[in-house]
Amino acid sequence: MTRWRISLMAALALFGTLPAAAGDYPYAGFFADTGKGEPAETTAARCALAFFEQRPDGSFGHYHIDNKTFRATGTVQYLHYREGSCSFDSLTRIETCESSLDLTDRDDQVYDMYIVYGEIGADRVAYTYADTPAEAAAIATGGEAELEDDDTGYYVRCPIDAAVLRAHIAAQDSSYSEGAINAFDDPASSLLKGDLARGVLEKLKSP
Prior knowledge:
Blueprint: E1 4-7, H1 8-15, E2 29-34, H2 40-49, E3 50-54, E4 59-65, H3 67-73, E5 78-89, E6 94-102, E7 111-120, E8 124-130, H4 133-140, E9 144-147, E10 152-157, H5 162-167, E11 169-173, H6 178-185, H7 189-192, H8 195-205
Parallel strand pairs: 5-11
Antiparallel strand pairs: 1-9, 2-3, 2-10, 3-4, 4-5, 5-6, 6-7, 7-8, 8-10
């Protein structure tokens, strides 16, 4: 991807400031990774295909729709494909995470991630990914950093009842191929607009 340089002070000013108090984990619940200004119906379709749960203790898990079971029986269930744990520094706004499972790339399971947060609202979280602790620190203090086009974005709370999503999470890890999981993890527009997402959403809305 094309790389570009930007003063992150301006970017973080655009995102806003972080309201979390020291020692608080800044957000929790079920979220999808989206672009700016994505319509709610697209976010709902995204969550129908895959979502992640950020837990109050800093741990997280990612889940994708079990397409085979849904096509065969109409049953909605989500399979676990990524897991890890994070710590958050409320002064620097830097989150440090360690992956313990990532089935999108079975050759690279354990790795660290660094995320600098801007605005953290009730339903939307602005983020910037960093490659190293030093880059994260530069971002947090308004320095320059080389970023990929998709290094900034938003986590948006899934517009689906959290209890409903939780009730459809299966106990097992995914056995799908890396390519299949990645297709749900970062869905193409055709998949977001397709019959699978629509069908799953209808099932999730059913009593």
